[in-house]
Amino acid sequence: MTTYTLDQEEQEILEAFESGAIQPIPNAKEEMIKHREYAAATLKKDKRINIRLASRDLSTIQKLALREGIPYQTFISSILHKFADGRYAEIRPLFTNGRFPPKSNPPKPTGQS
Predict the structure, then answer these.
(1) Domain count within the chain
(2) Is residue 20 part of a domain?
(3) Could you list the residue range(s) of the whole structural domain that residue 97 is in?
(4) What phi and psi, each to the nearest 5 degrees, are found at residue 99?
(5) Taking the C-alpha atoms of 100, 79, 10 and 26 in order, what is their torsion angle to the nearest 10 degrees?
């Protein structure tokens, strides 16, 4: 039998499921198919663009993407998608004394408490 090490969030989900606080939905297969179709339609990337960036900006973007564990092209696409969707908010500078802010304490968007 394979044993897994769960992080805190996974452990909380497992405990909630085992205690009955989370119940499976009766039509799970149909819901999964429906949501896969939604995701495919939403995330369909059917256009290609070419842009020029300052080397410094690209380097910063690549470092941020690496920190998130995703390819930098995916990271850029995500930023543009959030902007187009109205979920982008300008925040404080990314660097303080040449360093990234701590990942565990992300900056809050402007105008929100």
Answers:
(1) 1
(2) no
(3) 51-104
(4) -125, 150
(5) 170
What H or E segment, with its residue span, contains residue 35?
A: helix 28-43
- pTM to 2 decimals? 0.46
Residue 23 lies in a domain: no
Q: Could you tell me the CA-to-CA distances from 99 to 59, 70, 96, 103 in Å, in that order?
A: 14, 20, 5, 11
How much is the average pLDDT of 95-104? 62
* 3-class SS of residue 81: helix
What 8-state DSSP symbol labels residue 100?
P
Place of tokens 């929100």: 112
Q: 93-107 burial by CB neighbour count: b if 16+ within 10 A, else e?
A: eeeeeeeeeeeeeee
List Cα–Cα distances, 80 to 11, 38, 86, 99, in angstroms. 33, 19, 10, 24
Q: How far apart are CA 74 and CA 27, in angstroms?
A: 32
Write the pLDDT tens digit of every residue in 11-66.
Answer: 999 999 899 998 888 898 998 998 888 777 766 777 889 999 999 999 999 999 99
